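Weekly structure sync, notes
Attendees: PL (lead), two postdocs, one rotation student
Agenda item 3: pending single-chain targets
PL asked that the sequence for the first pending target be pasted directly into the notes so everyone works from the same version. It is reproduced below exactly as submitted, 162 residues in total.
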Amino acid sequence: AGGLAVLAALWGLLWLHGVATPEAYTLPAAALALLAGGAARWGRPATDSVPAYVPGLVLAFAPTLLLSVEHPSLHTARLLMALPAAVAVVLAGAALRLRGPLLAGATALVGAALLLLAPVADALPRWVSLGLAGALLLGLGVTYEARRRDLELVRERLTRLG
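Predicted structure, written out during the meeting:
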């Protein structure tokens, strides 16, 4: 809770002062948070990776994603730099069998990809998006039981990760 309050205060100050590149201010703090999380896991290997690494990863990815929500086309370069970083975090989380980096990296990856695809979705006629949504819902309904079983398997494997 204290970390979230500090993060909100930092972002508020950066926004009030009109800082255009908050990453310059948040990435050093993110690196420090990741080092602290690594030190916590080094001292106590049983420490869960979610509280150890996710705050630092949120601090690293959130400013880019939040800036890009309002105007994705203005921040395309930012998002294109965030994509490889998110992929690297996902791969590192999978290789090291750590749930925290895997979930945080996947969330940042999906968020950046959706923001990059937003202009394409705006350019499509409305009937195309409604048809795609209907087809997606129909497909989800048909494969519900198999997906539920797969979700249980994924949940089981995620709980086994550190």
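Discussion points:
- The longest helix spans residues 99-123.
- The chain has a mean pLDDT of 84.
Action: rotation student to compare against the earlier draft before next sync.
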